[in-house]
Amino acid sequence: MSDRVIGVGVIGCGEIAQLMHLPYLHELPEFRIAALCDVSRGAAEKLGTHCRVSARYSDHRALLADPDVDAVLIATYDHAEIATDALRAGKHLLVEKLLAFTPEEARPLVEHAERGGLVALVGYMKLYDPGYEIGLERIALIGPPKSIHVHDFAGRFDRHGRLYTQTRVTDAPADALAAGRNAVARRIDAALGRDHAGYRDLYLVVLGLGSHDLAAMRGAFGAPSRVVYARQIGPKQLLAVLEYDDVPCVFDMAMAQYEWWDEWIHVHGERDEVRIEFQNTYFRNASAIVRVREAAGEGPSERVIPGAPDTAFRREWLHFADCIMPGRSRARRCPAGSPTSILPFRSSRRCRPKLFEAKAVERWTLVRRAQDRSGQKNMRSYERSEAIQGRPYRPRLRAACLRPLDCFVANAPRNDASVG
Ligand SMILES: NC(=O)c1ccc[n+]([C@@H]2O[C@H](COP(=O)([O-])OP(=O)(O)OC[C@H]3O[C@@H](n4cnc5c(N)ncnc54)[C@H](O)[C@@H]3O)[C@@H](O)[C@H]2O)c1
Fold first, then answer.
1. Nearest 10 degrees: CA dihedral of 174, 180, 183, 189?
2. C-alpha–C-alpha distance, residues 290 and 331, integer Å
3. Do the beta carbons of residue 71 and residue 123 sit within 8 Å?
4. pLDDT tens digits for 148-206?
5. CA-to-CA distance for 279 and 253, rounded, in angstroms?
């Protein structure tokens, strides 16, 4: 694999595949688009002609049998069965979030990926956002947080379409698609159980939207120690208070109709504040902006640090190539602050310690710089913040998509008003 281009089979040729994945697979020399698959035969045909890909399928099993396919992108609605088949077929996989709809579906997949020598990555691409990485570095420098706020009120999803040319064909068997969605609904209902019946729609929003924020939150701080409070505010709105030892973390998430993108992580330290503001997911080359509020002498100051123009999806693919092809420079793709070693669901045990070490070295450099500027005090606060932040850098195989159910159903008190 090290001396050849990775042939990727794309399963599910809908919006996100066309807007973000196919352009980078086409552009990056590490990859070639080996095959396309969609239950809409017309979509696979039309896109195949457009991308000049002759291998076109309407059944993912046929694509998996194609020897030209080394790895797959799964960008359908329901991923677990296809991911299982891909692992059985010996293909590396990048599966769009969410890995699965319930922990019961996801756990065997994680175990399966662990056993094989394959790379399996869940597409929480915000973890690769250059602005997010800068934000993590800044958070590390402000000492132990007093409070954390993770917020996502998603803006309108019908605005970005006009920026791109898409191929939409409506010949997919509507009955089969509807049956698939109904089957998912039944699986979720079973997972929620009688105690939490009625939360399916909100749960789907947490998985579809909030899972990105939970992944970014866990990338920065690890898994919270407990859920203090969780409440459904409206049909598509959740408010929760989580806790990291004695540090509270407000998590609020909703679907909204804003003409802007309202997604951020705000960390309050003793003297400084850092805020990572994510940009619209569907914009290319728009990375998160970091705002730092700090003292300037005896007065306040605010700095805005724009992330380098790059696209998180592009960097996600580069990291995927790094994991598959031994010998490529991972450090280049995984700078300090990047949460790559917590990236869920990667099966290659070999590369984890290296990532961890690279990060430790980089973070130590960061500490030394902080020390040079401000002496021992900063060092101590760094160490404390590291105690909080250190947790995510331990390898974690539990896919972040397990967390919504774990957090909001398993841990929280059960009553009518709460999500859990
Ligand atoms: N990372 C992100 O920010 C992000 C953004 C949007 C969507 N997504 C994820 O990507 C996935 C796709 O989302 P989308 O917006 O592109 O949806 P979409 O409906 O536009 O595309 C899904 C495509 O998959 C096809 N499909 C469905 N079942 C199939 C099967 N069994 N085999 C082959 N093809 C099949 C459909 O015909 C459709 O073309 C979802 O899981 C979603 O959660 C991630």
1. -100
2. 22
3. no
4. 999 999 999 999 988 999 998 989 989 999 999 999 999 999 999 998 999 999 999 99
5. 16
Distance of CA 18 from the midpoint of ligand 1 (Å): 10
Tell me if residue 336 falls in helix, strand or coil.
Answer: coil
Q: Is the CB of 40 under 6 A from ligand 1?
A: yes
CATH number of 6-126: 3.40.50.720
Q: DSSP string spanning 30-92? A: TEEEEEEE-SSHHHHHHHHHHHT---EESSHHHHHT-TT-SEEEE-SS--HHHHHHHHHTT-E
Given a cut of 50, the residues of the chain with pLDDT beneath it are 2, 331-420
Q: From CA 206, how far away is CA 420, in angstroms rounded? A: 13
Q: Letter for the amino acid at 400?
A: A
Pocket flag, ligand 1, residue 169 (CB < 6 Å): no
Q: What is the pLDDT of residue 1?
A: 59
Pocket of ligand 1 contains residue 172 by CB under 6 Å:
yes
Q: Ligand 1, residues 16, 46, 47, 203: which to mutate, most atoms within 8 A of Cβ?
A: 16
Phi and psi at 207, nearest 5°, equal -70, -45
pLDDT tens readout for residues 45-77: 999 999 999 999 999 999 999 999 999 999 999
Q: Which fold has domain 132-309+397-411?
A: Dihydrodipicolinate Reductase; domain 2 (3.30.360)
Read off the pTM: 0.83
pLDDT value, residue 329: 54
pLDDT score for 369: 35
pLDDT computed for residue 45 by the predictor: 97
Examine domains 6-126 and 132-309+397-411 and report if their fold is the same.
no
The domains of the chain are located at 6-126, 132-309+397-411
